[in-house]
Automatic annotation (TrEMBL):
Protein name in UniProt: TonB-dependent receptor
Location within or outside the cell: Cell outer membrane
Coiled coil: none
Organism the protein comes from: Parasphingorhabdus cellanae
TonB-dependent receptor plug domain sequence ranges: 58-157
Pfam families listed in its UniProt record: Plug (PF07715), TonB_dep_Rec_b-barrel (PF00593)
Listed InterPro entries: Beta-barrel_TonB, Beta-barrel_TonB_sf, Plug_dom, Plug_dom_sf, TonB_rcpt_bac
Amino acid sequence: MKRFSTLLVGSMLSASVLAIATSAAAQEAPAEAQEEENIIIVEGIRESLNAAAELKRDDSRIVDLIVAEDIGKLPDNNVAEALQRVTGVAINRDFGVGDSVSIRGLPQNRVEINSRSTLGDGRNGINFQDVPSEILAAVEVIKSPTPKMIEGALGGTINLRTLRPLELKEPIISFSAKAEYTDKTENWGPILGATLGKSWDMGSAGSFGVVASLSYQDRTLRQDEYRSSLEVTNFDLDGDGALDGNVVEPRNFSTFIDTERRERLAGNVTLQWAPASGDGMFYLEGTYTDRKGNDESFSPNLIQNSALSTPAERAAGFRVDETQQLVGTTDDDVTFINRTESVFRNTESLSAAFGGEWQFGKVKVSGEVSYAESKTFTPQTDLRFWGIDPVAEAANPDGLNSFLGQVFYDTDNKSLPTVDVTDDSLWLSRDMFAFRRYENREDRINNDETALRFDISYEEPFGLGDFIKSIDIGARYTNRNFDSSRDRLFIDNIHRNLRDGNGDLALIFMDQFPAGTIQDFDFNAFRGNNTPLDLENFAMFDPSILRDRDATLQIVSDLLAGTNFAITDLNSALVPQLDRFSAAEEDTYAAYAQVQIDTELGGIPIDAVLGTRFVRTELTSDAFNNVAGDFVPTQDTNTYNDWLPSINITAEVANDLLVRFAAAKVMRRPDFTQLSPALRLNQDATFGQRGNPQIEPFRATQYDVSIEKYWGNGNYVSLAAFYKSVSSFFDETEICLDSPASVAISNANRRNELCFLDGRGGEPTLATPASDIGIPTATQVNGDSGSVKGFEVGYQHAFDFLPGVLSGLGVTANYTFADSEDPNGRPLEDISKHTVNLTAYYEKGGLGMRLAYTYRSRFLDDILNGRVRQLGVLLDETVDDPTRGNSFREPIEQLDASISYDLTDWLTVSADAVNLTGEQIRDTGTSKSLWRVLESDRRYTFGIRAKF
């Protein structure tokens, strides 16, 4: 793949250089500028790129845009995947589907629809998986703010624009139908969309219009996951029986096969009226999305309970590489675990607004009242089984009696490891796997915002129209409410502590489960039968049963009836987890003033927007804290003020050559999960997270300089440099929290992951008094200053000067370099130093084709991941190393393609392919030791679109 990508990059750049050299004498006259306020309705790849270039050129800010190729179609089927083509933007994926973006390396962005808030589970706004491209007409990526814009974006603002009916030149009737094939699931799913729009001239009653869009998608996706834990172990390196060096030891191998069915319904409706005088207009609009589905996941697990140290374990294939990691070894005492799980996010979101504007001479008054909400329900069910040695069980029923098997491990830390189980037939032995754990839980997040906004614009004030274009002032008030809760039934260590009606220890094996609930599965994870756990098949609890959580609960209740774990009331089996409850109410008061200047300086046209925004934030946080086993309500408040001045200057230093400068102070409030004072534990209660209501926002001062050269129809090259000085980073730190109640429920088999309250090194054991042990807990405080800096290059060129059929060729390309550093000297999360996007397209005679390549270099994915928490540069647990727990995502590249053909003026057929080469995602620790590999579907879409 790397050789292919190098050839692709080289060929595209060569073509681009040739085009620049040969087009100087053949440039066409610039296209007529469109009105800045209108959304341009276009058809085809080239027209959409031309329209985006026009809007970029005419904007006062540093901005990039995507304009729909046709009504109801963006260049990609997913908004995030379309945004990854934009200069300075990189995306993350879930099951291979784009779901979040970072702008110039920063994920703390605002997502708006028609310049008002959208809501998701946190601050960033609606999840891009929940927004179909079919309901959008354009997307703006705004990198330099103005005072009029809503605060809260550290990287930038992404504004999703829908059609306004009075902007239509003619009625719209558009329908699309597609079928998406996912190769790992071998499933076909529908994608349907429709857009209807019309405006009416009602004479003296004015003009009225309606636009409505509707989209439906039903898809099934699969993701295969290999993961392990990386731990630091004092090891016998030379085989003399003495421990003589720390090594990184991979442990606890798992392979998950996770299949999700996702169903999404989304719609948008806009009503608009304007008087016959043309003095104003009013609108009522709303956007609704509903995403739901189910999940099926299962995994065989190999758990190592002791460090590799015996001569037998060192004998076969024993190797340690130059990074002091065990890369080849055999372990003789591995425990077998079997797991079936389901967890899926169901989200409903709504954004609605009523507003309007009216012109009183030179004064324009506008206002809007808006409401946004998001409701997320995430159910999870988890069943686990423990391998039991029947001989040891018969001899000593009071013992743990784990079956201990042998496994060989081999890795090059660059590709999927080999984890070879010596006797894989044991995985089919239903009489050797005992019921170990059952969890049934429901997580809920409710998030809503009511906002009022009022603006006044005085155009060409005081007769200074040749200098001051307008003066704008305005105010905004918001009330935000957020709450998060969990109900849970959790029964653990059933295989150790279950007692029957006589009080005797008992076990429930797989073969005691109801007929049909345990199935044999043909294990075929990862492509090419390249399975990290070398298994043919294994027995498991049928994951499809988890779709019916009530039925699963009934099965478990019947099995546990008459025991000490009996579930007495199915209706109240799930108990509210008060330590997981958090709520926040946030009021913000904002006011701004800005001046837009349109003048000349030394014969050079100058356009500038400058001013300031003031915002006051008042926060109240509520939660429950565990005090001596009782949950006591707790409340905290915080208030802070921010002045956010900004300036955007554009100078046309030569014909179609623009130089821009922008500077601004920006702020980003902490996410609500960071503000809750409640302690949150992982499933095994071996690691916790606790928020901090007193944490202050991200605050940064940013500077941007760009040079943009435009020519022909939509052609341009741009170079921009950016620098952000962040004065109040969130510094995540780990403390050893004194929480006896949490220690009491922690997984005894992972006792070594707890910590000593007195700060001593080493690992607690089952023999360690509980009073000496605490829970490793991550919390956040405001740290020192840091920075993000870099540059980006963008290039767009249609080769329409070439002869004949070659005139349909074109290319878009961009490169972003971003360098970051937090107060501890490590890079910021989600920032790749190098991001590349290259797209070659052809459009001629109704035929349109695109080949798109994306690349982003290694980046910090998680500051404090429990599976690599013990790692550090020095591999020394006694050292306070800020890189301990850092998980990195290795370089990612992807190749996508699309083709379409216009059968008639109104009918188009198309085909798309996403992730053509089936690239994997690899996660490593700070020592570059591989601990996780993810592999998702290739996706192929075939469709037809009609526009009347």
